[in-house]
Structure formats: structure tokens, C-alpha cells
Amino acid sequence: MMTLTGVSCVTNSGGRPVPEISELDRYKEQYAHFRSMNDILYKIPPIFMAVIGGLWYFAAQNVEKQKWIACGAFVFSAVASLCFINVMERFSLAFTGYIDNLNKMDGPMKVTIRSSCLPSTVKTIQFLLLAAAATSIAGAIYAGNR
After folding, report:
1. d(Cα 83, Cα 4) in Å, to the nearest integer?
2. More confident position, 54 or 4
3. Is the CB of residue 103 less than 8 Å from the CB of residue 112?
4. Sign of dihedral through CA atoms 85, 123, 132, 57?
5. Mind listing the pLDDT tens digit for each residue in 49-98?
6. CA 89, 94, 99 angle in degrees (round to 5)?
7. In this structure, are residues 81 and 129 in contact, taking their beta carbons and an 8 Å threshold?
8. Model pTM?
9. What is the mean pLDDT of residues 2-28?
10. What would the DSSP string read from start to end of the chain?
11. Which backbone phi and psi does 36 adopt, to 5 degrees?
12. C-alpha distances in Å from residue 47, one per residue of 31, 80, 92, 122
């Protein structure tokens, strides 16, 4: 431990001084990340909707003319939906980590709805994506049998 102009510091692996981060600074940083992730959480579904909806629109336009292209678009839409479910699961794990960290730092003042009987926002989005994947498979089967 060294001091650098009155600020308590530790050294990194290269021997250079690195200022210590206070608990308050850690809390502010964690909260800033949480706030940013919460903002992203509500921007993700419209992106998924645009991709899946665009593929469905493209497929529906080609069902009569080029059924195999329509089939391919529906299958790709199903694969995209399943990939988006994975994206949401990974997002949920990171988001939960930030919530857990903030709850530890908040102590008895923590705000949480973990005990809710309703599914979380992420689980709801994942369910809708699963429904989109099933609908896409049904569309591919329909287009293939035309």
C-alpha cells in the first residue's frame, strides 16, 4: 500500500500505483451498470420483433411464388428466436448479478420482487420468443406443403 498525493493506493502487477476504490464508488458504478442494463432490457424486444416480423413478412410474401425460400425464412426465424432466448438467458444472469450485488450493498434497504408469483420480464420475453419459434416452425411446415 502506498500513498500518492494523499490518496491511498495499491500497486498493480506492473508496480504502478492504482487508487483504491471506495465502497460508495463501487455502489455508484454497480448502480450505473444496473440502470444501463435496465434501459437495454426494454430496448431488446423491439429489435427481436423487427427481426422476426421482417422474416415473417418476407416469408409470407414468398409462400405462393417460391415456397422453399419462404420455408427457409421461416426456419431461419425459428433459429433466430431460439438464439434470442439464449441471449435473454445470458442477459438475465448478468442482470441478476447486478441486482444481487446492489441488494448486498443496500442491506435492509434493498428493494426486490424476487418472491413474486409472476414471471420476470426476461422469462416473459423468453416465453414469447418460444411461441415465435413454434409459429415459425408451423409457418415452415405450411409453406413446405403448399
Report:
1. 49
2. 54
3. yes
4. negative
5. 999 999 999 999 999 999 999 999 999 999 999 999 999 999 999 988 88
6. 120
7. yes
8. 0.77
9. 68
10. -EEETTEEEEE-TTS-EEEPPPHHHHHHHHHHHHHHHHHHHTTHHHHHHHHHHHHHHHHHHHTTT-HHHHHHHHHHHHHHHHHHHHHHHHHHHHHHHHHHHHHHHHGGG----TT-SSPPHHHHHHHHHHHHHHHHHHHHHHHHT-
11. -65, -45
12. 25, 12, 17, 15
With beta carbons less than 8 A apart as the criterion, state whether 41 and 96 touch: no
Quick one: cell of 78? 425459428
Average pLDDT over residues 118-143: 95
> How many residues in the chain?
146
Which residue type occupies 119? P
CB 50 within 8 A of CB 84: no
CA proximity to 28, closest of 81, 104, 102: 102
Q: The C-alpha cell of 128 is what? A: 414469447
**pLDDT (0 to 100) of residue 116:** 77
Residue 113 in grid coordinates: 420482487
